[in-house]
Amino acid sequence: MKKNPEQEIDQSARFAFSFFVASAGLWLLAAALLAYIAAAKLTDPLFLSSLEFFTYGKIKVSQANAFVYGWGGNSIFAVSLWIIARLSQSLVRGSIFLIFAGAIWNLSITFGLLGILDGHMLGHELLEMPKQVWPALLVSYLIIAFIIFVVFRSRKQKVTIAPQWFIIAALIWFPCLFLFGWSGLELNPGRGTLQSILSIWFGQNVIWLWLTPVALGCAYYIIPSVLNRPIDKYYLAVFGFWCIAGLAPWSVVHHLEGGPVPMWVPAIGTVMSIAMVFPIAVASTNFHSTAFQDVSKVWNYLPLRFVIFGTLSYTISSYIGVIFSLPAVAKLTQFSIINEFHFNQRVYGFFSMIIFGIVYHILPQITGREIGTAAKNFHFWTSALGVFALLLAYLVGGLTHGVLGQQPSLAWATVIESVKPYFLITEYAFLILGFSQLVFVLNLWKVLVPNPFASSDRQANLKTA
Amino acid sequence: MSKENQTSEEIRSSGMKDDELVNKHVRLNQIKHEPTKGFLQAPLIFVFVFGCLIFVCSIQLAHTTNDFQLHPPKEIVELTPEEKEALRLDRKISSGEKIFAVRCASCHQGNGLGIAGQYPPLAGSKWATANPEIITNIILKGLKGEIVVKGETYGTSAAVNMAAVAINDREIANVVTYVRQAWGNDANEVFEDEVASTRAGSVEQQDQWTGDQLISMYPDSFSN
Amino acid sequence: MNNIFKFSIYIFLTLSFAWLAFVVGATNQYGDLEPTAESLEEDGSIPPDAELFPKSMAGIAQLGAKEYLSLGCATCHTQQVRSEEAGFDVERGWGKRPSVPRDYILQEEVLLGHNRVGPDLANVGMREYSSEWLHKHLFMPQSVVEGSICQPSPFLYEENKEASVDSIEITNGETNIFIKPSLRANRIVAYLESLHQNYELPEIAFSDILEEDQSVEIASAVAEPETIATAFPSWLSEQMESGKEIYMKVGAGGGLCYTCHQINGQGIPGAFPPLTGSDWVLGDKERLIKLSIHGLMGEIEVNGEKYNGVMAGFGIQAGGPPLNDQQIADVLTYIRNDWGNSASAISPEEVASVRNSVKDRAPNQMWTAAELQSNSSPD
Question: What is the pTM of this model?
Answer without folding.
Answer: 0.72
